[in-house]
Structure prediction request, 343 residues.
Amino acid sequence: MKITTLFMLILLFLSACSLENASFKSVKFSGNTMGTTYHITLSDTSISDGDYSNLLTQIDSVLTQINQTFSTYIESSEISQFNQLHSTKSMRISTDFAMVLSTALKVSRETQGAFDPTVMPLINAMGFGYTKPNTTPTAAQLDSITMNIGYEYIRLDSNLLHKTRPKVQLDLSANAKGFGIDKVIDFLKTKRFKHLLVEIGGEVSAFGNKYRNEKWQIGIDTPNLNAQPGKDFSRIISLNKGGMATSGDYRNYHEVNGVRISHILDAQTSLPLTHGLASVTVIAQDAMTADAYATAFMILGETRAMKLAESIPDLEAFFIVRKNGKYFENWTKGFEAYFVASN
Prediction:
């Protein structure tokens, strides 16, 4: 559904630390993964030069494994192997693959198929996947493509994955990035770090505090094509536990005959979004859940998404709606608790 839809920059992000001595308040890691970048901050900690290097290597190893499981751009990845399987034979998949797919299928059922992990052929046809067609598909071509799109064509039995139509293909980018964040958080917890922030391509998860019991602060970009990512914020959010993800229609798109086509596609209509919802931010217990629902809510539109969001325990959502060139905000009852008061 999305690779990166928003640049949610971490406010007051601590600058990279000197390694001249073995004791300091924070360290920052950064690198490339999953077609985007990652940033990690460990706060209120001490770490030696050697430990720093070793930890960075271990983090990259965790992220490399995630990429090798979920990247549709890597022909040897686990998901690519399934997509290349043009038969209805079962394929045994990893626990990580099964966990991410299980979440995607759950959200598919809750949205009656508006959110659908089998949307890969449509993503490719519209020019947002690993193939880049020169023209947009015709109505007849779309009809042919949609014959193989439908979460009901996927069956997951523990670690055995089946497709009931040979040409069904998966795209789990809508929540795999969030899952990668959760995996890094879990890894760092095993190293006994208690205050950390992990961000991949704009999605983020926090644990503990930034400094001296201050929560981490995260900016939600203004969903305006002329806004500066990381500088023009609609809101500042305070977070010290859980995952946060934002999905929007204004970063990853292209124009065809003067019509802007967003990378977020409705699997039921096979068309770009036409409602006025410009972006959705979701806070949940983990980044994978927040990631999936942020995309799902974008597809549903504000009215349907708000109703669903209010029904899900431990989840809050913030909506920015575009109407007549202006932007309006709305949010679930519990989201306001995360706002940072403006000075």
Remarks:
- The chain has eight helices and 17 strands.
